[in-house]
Amino acid sequence: MAAAAKLPSLVNSAITAAKPKFNIFLQYAKVELTPPKLSDIPQIRAGIGKLLSNARSGAWKNLTVKQATLNTLVGMEVVFWFYVGECIGKRHIVGYKV
Amino acid sequence: MSNLPYGPPVKISPLIRFGRWSFLTAGILYGAFHQSRLSKKETKLREIEAKEKVVRDERLKKEKAIAAAAELKALEEMVATKK
What we know:
The structure holds two protein chains of two kinds.
Chain A: H1 2-32, H2 41-57, H3 65-90
Chain B: H1 14-82
């Protein structure tokens, strides 16, 4: 009973403690995590074109190992968002719950 | 922006942000599509199983009755031979 009575105050203090950090997170997220705007499309197109031309001309072979590793990691992270989306779409974490 | 503790936010390349968001939406659509496809398939299978279950239960019941009768008969024979 005592624990249940303490719960609202606990939640309130947790919220007040988390608020400043969350505001900081939001300020970063507004810049780093925003969906691409319509005005970004030319840059996106240029980026895709650069990626394709690098793949075609073999310029990707001239990267340093460090750069290549970083590019691979970034590419993996971007692709893993697909699986996050799949989990959201199927509304279950492991496997399809039918 | 200057009051941020970890320095100014990094400018993520629009290509990376576009990739993340498009993969995320593609994943959501893929997951939802396959979820509905597989659950439809499974409901069909469940219906078939429910039909088969009736038949199977009937058969098991009969087999059990036959086995019980045979056991009883064997026991009776054993008792009869011992006397």
